[in-house]
Amino acid sequence: MNTLLKKGGAVATGTGTIRVYNAGRGRLEYVEPVVKGEKEWKEQLDRIHPLAFRVTRKGGTERPFTGRYHDHHENGIYSCVCCGTDLFSSGSKFDSGTGWPSFMAPVAEQNIRTRSDNSLFMYRTEVICARCGAHLGHVFDDGPPPEHKRYCMNSAALTFRGYEPGKAKR
């Protein structure tokens, strides 16, 4: 397969697929990008969470301390609410005190992309899903060591799949 594009770790290949990490299977896999029109996204996401469409497709945010995952402590994987791509593990989650779910790192760099966000008169780095382009939140350089990253995500952009420690992560 010929590599055509590498952006934020996501690799697009000559077959129109990208490579992302499947946490349940513990391996990188080739998957089709998920592309839908605004109407399709709105219909899908409005059934899941009242803020999901505004956050993921319009770049919105939820108010701090209101999201279902900001104070969530189960073991598992947080995935993209739009396409199901695995994004963050509970093992990298920490309490940043900001009111949003915060993580030290994604499950794999291939699963996210970043881009500059200069909206609201500030410079930030936006985090988006590599498979469907959903806005997830922002990453900051004020997290815990060793990487000092804080992936500050919106609960409305995530789903959660729990597992017991030591058991398969499916």
What overall form do the CA principal axes indicate? globular
Computed structural class = mainly beta
CA-based gyration radius: 15 Å
Largest sheet, described in full?
6 strands, antiparallel
Architecture overview:
The chain has helices at residues 38-46, 52-58, and strands spanning 3-7, 10-13, 18-22, 27-31, 76-80, 86-89, 93-94, 102-103, 112-117, 124-129, 135-140, 150-153, 158-162. It has 170 residues and is mainly beta. It has one domain: Metal Binding Protein, Guanine Nucleotide Exchange Factor, Chain A (Beta Complex), CATH 2.170.150. It has a six-stranded antiparallel sheet with strand order 7-8-12-11-10-9. The protein is globular, with a radius of gyration of 15 Å. Residues 1-14 have low confidence and may be disordered.
Topology:
Elements: E1 3-7, E2 10-13, E3 18-22, E4 27-31, H1 38-46, H2 52-58, E5 76-80, E6 86-89, E7 93-94, E8 102-103, E9 112-117, E10 124-129, E11 135-140, E12 150-153, E13 158-162
Antiparallel strand pairs: 1-2, 3-4, 5-6, 5-13, 7-8, 8-12, 9-10, 10-11, 11-12
Quick description:
This protein is 9% helix and 35% strand.
Keywords:
single chain, 170 residues, mainly beta, Metal Binding Protein, Guanine Nucleotide Exchange Factor, Chain A, six-stranded antiparallel sheet, three-stranded antiparallel sheet, 2 helices, 13 strands, 9% helix
